Every structure is written in structure tokens, then in C-alpha cells.
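Feature request, filed as a ticket because there's no other form

It would be nice if the structure record came with a short human-readable summary line next to the C-alpha cells. Right now we just get the raw output. Example of a typical job, pasted below so the devs can see what we mean:
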Amino acid sequence: MFRKVLHDILQRTNGCLGVLIMGFDGIPVEEVWSEGMPDPDLEITVAECSSLVVAASRANRGGKLGRLTEMTISGENKAFIVRLMSQDYFIAMILRSEGSFGRGRYELTRAGLILQPEFAQQ
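Raw output as currently delivered:
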């Protein structure tokens, strides 16, 4: 089920390079890449960004803002959009800078609703 949902996101989002379900430990549970093969540099970047997601989640709770639901990291060439699924997992999307950012956010929100029952069973 995870793979199909991720593949659908990839197909519907212009400029999407990859979509992953990851644990906060930086280990991917499932991943789909636009070229069929993961880019090693992007895989490393996503794994390293998981520590930023954990830190932001803690800061959000500590600052009384409530549970972190979404986070974005944008660079000159690519953007990284994260949608938290549970206290242990998140969905991450990597987009080209000219990619459809709004569509990416929509697709991650939609995937979160579809996959939420799977994560609620933890």
C-alpha cells in the first residue's frame, strides 16, 4: 500500500524527484524515485534532514505550539517537504526548485489522510 501511494504522489507532482516514508532515525521504510533509482546524494540529504525534523518537532512541543504537522526546507535547487505521520514516522518529498510546491503539499496532506490508519496501528 505504501509504495502505491508514494508512486501516485510522484506521478501527480510536477518536479518531484522522490517521495519517502522515513523513521525519525533516518532509515527509509519505503521510497520511490523519479528515475527508478535513488540518487545517493539525495538519500543522504533526506537521512540527515530527519534530525532537523526531530529537533523542530521537539522545539514545537517545547514552545507550546502543539504537534508539528509539516515542515519545509528550501534551497537554491531543491525543496524538501515533510509531513509528519506519527511520533516516529514522516513522509518526505524532494522537489526541483521549479516543481509544483503547492501540489506537493496537497499530495502529502492527502497521503497523510490515506495512510493515517496504518500509522495509528503502531
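Something like this underneath would help us a lot:
The first strand starts at residue 16 and ends at 23.
The CA atoms of residues 31 and 84 lie 16 Å apart.
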